[in-house]
Write a structure and sequence with these properties.
By secondary structure, this protein is of the alpha+beta class. The chain has 3 domains: 7-81, no CATH class; 100-172 and 290-445, Beta-lactamase (3-Layer(aba) Sandwich), CATH 3.40.710; 174-280, Methane Monooxygenase Hydroxylase, Chain G, domain 1. 32% of the residues lie in helices and 13% in strands. It is built from 16 helices and 15 strands. The chain has helices at residues 7-18, 34-37, 39-42, 69-72, 100-111, 126-132, 166-180, 190-193, 207-211, 229-237, 252-256, 274-287, 291-300, 329-340, 353-361, 429-445; strands at residues 82-85, 114-115, 124-125, 135-142, 145-151, 161-162, 309-312, 325-327, 344-345, 348-349, 379-381, 384-386, 394-398, 402-407, 412-418. Helix 1 crosses helix 10 (229-237), helix 7 (166-180) packs parallel to helix 12 and helix 7 (166-180) packs across helix 15. The protein is globular, with a radius of gyration of 21 Å. It starts with 6 loop residues before the first helix and ends with a helix.
């Protein structure tokens, strides 16, 4: 599928991709390898000014097409307006590391770990899998200590990377905290919290159905159809001036007010990003704070983060709750460690242990269906993916390979940031999920 040359559709594609949504513009039958497409090798935006053919600009919306996306994932703030998720003014709490020699030895040992990808007979090493999945950053913590850390491409130690739909898990975590603390009733109907939702299909959904994406709402992501809902949503969300004659919704929340029904609430899990933005609106209404402010207050400031994060916003300044966060690798590791520790980090309780217990328990597996064959017989709850494997693993996931993978049995937290050429994680899971299990098994042998 090729991308449209229409400026409006191209803009919508660029915004959609920035928000963590796939389009066919990225898909190549034989894409450049990770080494060949490394942003430094490609020479993107190098020079003062860069050569014309090495510039990546907005609003021509090529900035998230492969291989440009391998630079753009570290530079979203240069393309779209954002709002800060502040870490506050206190000193960061350092992560724990082994001695330099032990750390080097561990890296070599983990790099040599082997596994067999799904539906394959050929073994692969951990190191090979990093390149196969176009990894930009990898961090592994075991028992609270960093045992592996590497950076590639556009991502440096002090850099930040788009986390795509892992943003949903931050939004869902904030919502679950509010539910457990009694500030949000997950049995309430959306219309009782957001009267402005009017006759939208969301009106009669419960907060829990929004949190677990079991709403019956119409939202198609058929990128070959220029009239698909994804394009309408992207046009509404664009922070750039609307074209002359545009008469559609303006902004995320205005779009949500006109969503039509499709099926019954509560029947099945359907992964639709608009649920996350509906949840973001609910969170903001019950707390009186933007999701960025709440994420700062409840997470980034409390976990001793070393970098501010930031989140893209629409033309009205509403943060994109479904995919707009950019953050540092280590801070995402801190967030994963807080989940592993059942809400505690650096001796401080960030949120109740019940929050993690509810997420780990997962959603209704009968509603998950078979639409994610590479993921397995999992479930989805509070905007987190639950594997229901022997280790009780669960994850935050985003397109192009973003992952916070929490393995309670192995006491392991793994964070991967990546810029895989295609947006669907179904192309990455066959390598990634067996690799994560292999590293978890290796780390357990060291206990």
């Amino acid at each position: 599928m090729s991308s449209s040359t229409s400026s409006l559709v191209a803009l919508a594609a660029g915004v959609a991709l920035t928000l963590g949504l796939p389009t066919g513009a990225q898909a190549q039958s034989t894409p450049l390898s990770a080494q060949e497409s490394d942003s430094r090798v490609m020479g993107w935006m190098q020079g003062f000014p860069p050569p014309e053919d090495k510039m990546i600009t907005q609003p021509d919306s090529v900035y998230f097409s492969f291989p440009r996306l391998r630079w753009s994932v570290c530079h979203l703030r240069e393309f779209l307006p954002t709002e800060e998720i502040s870490r506050g003014l206190g000193a960061p709490v350092p992560l724990s590391y082994p001695s330099p020699s032990d750390f080097a030895d561990l890296r070599a040992e983990i790099d040599a770990v082997t596994f067999t990808p799904q539906k394959s007979d050929a073994e692969m090493t951990w190191k090979e899998s990093l390149y196969a999945n176009y990894t930009d950053g990898m961090l592994i913590l075991h028992k609270g200590e960093v045992v592996y850390e590497r950076y590639f491409g556009c991502l440096e130690e002090d850099g930040k990377h788009a986390i795509m739909s892992m943003t949903k898990s931050v939004t869902g975590l904030l919502a679950e905290i509010l539910v457990v603390e009694g500030a949000l009733d997950d049995t309430a109907l959306v219309r009782d919290i957001i009267p402005e939702i009017g006759d939208s299909a969301f009106a009669t959904a419960t907060v829990r159905q929004v949190m677990d994406m079991t709403t019956g709402v119409k939202y198609s992501e058929d990128y070959s159809d220029p009239n698909a809902d994804i394009w309408l949503y992207s046009r509404a969300a664009s922070p750039l001036p609307k074209p002359e004659g545009y008469d559609g919704p303006d902004g995320y929340w205005e779009y949500l007010q006109q969503v039509a029904p499709d099926g019954n609430h509560g029947d099945e899990f359907h992964y639709k990003t608009i649920n996350s933005d509906m949840l973001g609106w609910i969170i903001s209404r019950v707390t009186g704070k933007a999701v960025t402010e709440l994420a700062s207050e409840r997470l980034w400031r409390r976990m001793g983060a070393e970098q501010d994060a930031y989140q893209t916003v629409d033309g009205k300044g509403v943060p994109f709750a479904g995919g707009g966060i950019t953050a540092g690798l280590r801070d995402l590791g801190r967030l994963g460690q807080a989940m592993l520790n059942e809400g505690v980090l650096n001796g401080q309780r960030l949120f109740p242990a019940e929050v993690v217990a509810k997420i780990r328990a997962g959603g209704d597996r009968d509603k998950f269906g078979d639409g994610f064959p590479t993921f397995g017989a999992g479930s989805y709850t509070s905007q987190w993916w639950v594997l229901h494997n022997d280790h009780g693993a669960y994850a935050a996931r985003g397109v192009h390979g973003q992952t916070i993978y929490v393995d309670p049995t192995a006491q392991m937290v793994l964070v991967r940031l990546a810029s895989f050429p295609r947006a669907q994680n179904g192309f990455i899971d066959p390598t990634s999920l067996p690799a994560y299990q292999a590293v978890a098994d290796f780390l357990m042998t060291r206990e």
